[in-house]
Specification:
- The complex is a heterodimer.
- By secondary structure, chain A is mostly helical.
- In chain A, about 70% of the residues lie in helices and about 0% in strands.
- Chain B folds into 2 domains: about 90 residues, no CATH class; about 190 residues, MetI-like (MetI-like fold, Orthogonal Bundle), CATH 1.10.3720.10.
- The longest helix of chain B is centred in the middle third of the chain and has 36 residues.
- The chains are: A mainly alpha, B mainly alpha.
- The interface between A and B is large, with 61 and 70 residues.
């Protein structure tokens, strides 16, 4: 393992001894409560994403130029934008993008990060050094900066932007998979699998993969949150979702451009993003606690 | 031992920088189709395309191109912008002061707010104050920095009219003027980092409070502020420094969106405008500079470990 990768574990090691004594009986139910709330919220978002065209009160694309920047009312619960489009309907119909675009990015991170991590963790040696150096390099530049460079090559647009985010997030997943694989490969059952003549691929699929599923699942949940934030940022910068289609991030761009006419229009799309990101994070933390058996810092 | 460790880290940093340079060099050559045609746009004349190809040095064989690029970097020459014709090094250096101002402001805000809130939460562990701080930290991590920035503009610039909403004022125009333009971007940029620092400070304080030496210090009569400042916070410094080191990248990346919100022409804005206009030499230079800053921050953090914790020095 390289030096730069030792710091986060070093912190964990510093905190580790107090883990057992810190568990409180009161906290666990509260945590479970917030985890359930997060799950319920995400399921609700999923339902809205599927049913958006039927439950939106208005056509999200329908303009009414005489009714721009309408305040909150019974007709338009969250008001209207510059072109008189219903903000609530836009937010509801953008839930699809909010779920699908992180899935694209995380899907790519999974396709790249998991095989590379398994390979590095099982083979070790030169393969590991080379892949780790590559991961270190990608992680040495802030994710959004590398995503910008990739978008500059691929061109703007939501799919390209999420492709870039997926590439940028791969090293994070790679590290988790590599670390977990190394730990699993020390176990005796791997040795016995080799002893009975299982090939590497079989061991990888039958023995290693199921045993690293827990940390991968946790990481994937947390990456969903990061991807949604990245989508919002890139769409806000005009590099992701292109008009007239809307995502929560591009709605914030529109709100930014008309901020002095309608200063409070920034609230609703932002709240939608924050709640969704918070839910993915809460769910990820709860999964980590549940799957690792102990609870983390809080 | 420490010198050997630091040299090892420095060499590793150089390797990373070299790989980043190699990647940015390859990136432009990976543009689907002819990069010169893509940059010139669809209506460009063949002469214009040729000129761009020439100025990017794309007519040379690949090894020669690479050698020229590497030699340029080592002498501080990153080429010229395809549009303004200005030297990339110049453009980048001119954009540093605003970005550095808001990044340092953000770091100052994050450390102050994060350590204070985290220490309070750790000392009141399990009580309502602790719960509120922890919830706040979770919220801070979930909020996009540009949204925080826009909310701050809506509240403090547009509604209350206390602080300017846009642009940057150089220090030459007075410290007060400079600071008034820095406050809101710094808070927007620093919120996520403040939340991370609060979480780690809280965890660190809780760990330290359970250590025998705290009981010993109490037995000797250390109480209140003295106990917290001399014994507790000092011993939570390591995880906090780690977070600060890791946040260098977050802050640099954050400037991209936060500068857009506040209309500040720093590094982030330069990066966005070059991506939109496909000004590849500027993008390459920007990525390389960012990597350099991150590598330097990491080295500094390694040195700081030794300063704060004598145990690390003997490793």
């Amino acid at each position: 393992m390289t030096q730069s990768q030792q710091h986060p574990p070093a912190v964990a090691a510093v905190e580790a001894p107090a883990l057992v004594s810190r568990r409180s009986t009161l906290r666990t139910p509260l945590r479970q409560g917030t985890a359930v709330a997060a799950l319920v919220y995400l399921l609700l978002v999923l339902v809205i994403a599927v049913l958006a065209p039927w439950i939106a009160p208005h056509d999200p694309a329908a303009q009414d130029l005489s009714n721009g920047f309408a305040p909150l009312s019974g007709e338009h619960l969250l008001g209207t934008d510059r072109y008189g489009r219903d903000v609530l309907s836009q937010i509801l119909s953008a839930t699809r993008v909010a779920l699908v675009s992180p899935l694209i990015a995380v899907g790519i991170a999974v396709l790249v990060g998991i095989p590379a991590g398994l390979l590095a963790g099982m083979r070790g040696g030169r393969t590991d050094s080379a892949l780790s150096a590559l991961a270190d390099t990608l992680l040495s530049v802030p994710a959004i900066v590398f995503a910008l460079a990739i978008v500059a090559v691929l061109g703007q647009g939501l799919t390209n932007a999420m492709l870039a985010v997926g590439i940028v997030l791969s090293p994070t997943l790679f590290r988790v998979v590599r670390g977990a694989t190394m730990v699993v490969c020390e176990e005796t059952f791997i040795l016995s699998a080799r002893a009975i003549g299982s090939g590497s691929v079989r061991i990888m699929l039958r023995n290693v993969l199921p045993n690293i599923a827990a940390p991968v699942l946790v990481q994937v949940t947390l990456l969903m949150a990061i991807s949604l934030l990245a989508e919002a940022a890139l769409s806000f910068l005009g590099l992701g979702m292109q008009p007239p289609a809307v995502s929560w991030g591009s709605m914030l761009r529109a709100a930014y451009e008309s901020q002095f006419d309608a200063p409070w229009a920034v609230v609703a799309p932002g709240v939608a993003i924050v709640l969704t990101v918070l839910s993915f994070n809460t769910l990820g933390d709860a999964l980590r606690d549940a799957l690792s058996g102990g609870d983390s810092n809080d | 031992m420490q010198a050997a460790f630091l040299i090892h880290r420095a060499l590793r940093g150089l390797l990373v920088l070299w790989l980043v340079h190699l990647m940015t060099f390859m990136l432009i050559r990976l543009v689907p189709g002819d990069p010169a045609e893509v940059i010139a746009g669809e209506q460009a004349t063949p002469e214009a395309v040729d000129q761009i190809r020439e100025s990017l040095g794309l007519t040379e064989p690949l090894p020669v191109q690479y050698w020229n690029a590497l030699r340029g970097v080592l002498t501080g020459d990153l080429g010229e912008s395809l549009f303004s014709g200005l030297a990339v090094t110049r453009l980048l250096l001119d954009a540093v002061p605003p970005s550095l101002s808001i990044a340092l402001g953000a770091l100052a805000f994050a450390v102050m707010a994060g350590v204070l809130l985290g220490a309070i939460a750790g000392l009141t562990r399990g009580r309502i104050v602790d719960r509120c701080v922890s919830a706040l930290a979770g919220l801070g991590i979930a909020m996009p920095s540009f949204w925080v920035g826009m909310m701050l503009v809506t509240i403090f610039s547009i509604t209350l009219n206390w602080l300017p909403a846009t642009s940057y004022a150089p220090l030459a125009r007075g410290t007060g003027e400079w600071a008034s333009h820095i406050v809101l971007p710094a808070i927007a940029l620093g919120t996520t980092v403040a939340a991370e620092i609060a979480r780690h400070t809280r965890g660190g304080v809780i760990d330290v409070m359970e250590k025998p030496f705290i009981r010993a210090a109490r037995a000797r009569g250390a109480t209140g502020a003295q106990l917290v400042l001399r014994h507790v916070l000092r011993n939570t410094a390591i995880p906090v420094i780690t977070v600060i080191g890791l946040s260098g990248g977050t802050l640099l990346g954050g400037t991209v969106v936060v500068e857009t919100v506040f209309g500040i022409s720093g590094l982030g804005n330069l990066a966005i405008s070059s991506v939109l206009s496909r000004d590849y030499p500027v993008i390459q230079g920007y990525v390389l500079l960012t990597a350099l800053i991150v590598v330097v921050i990491n080295l500094t953090v390694d040195i700081l470990y030794g300063v704060v914790n004598p145990k690390v020095r003997k490793r």
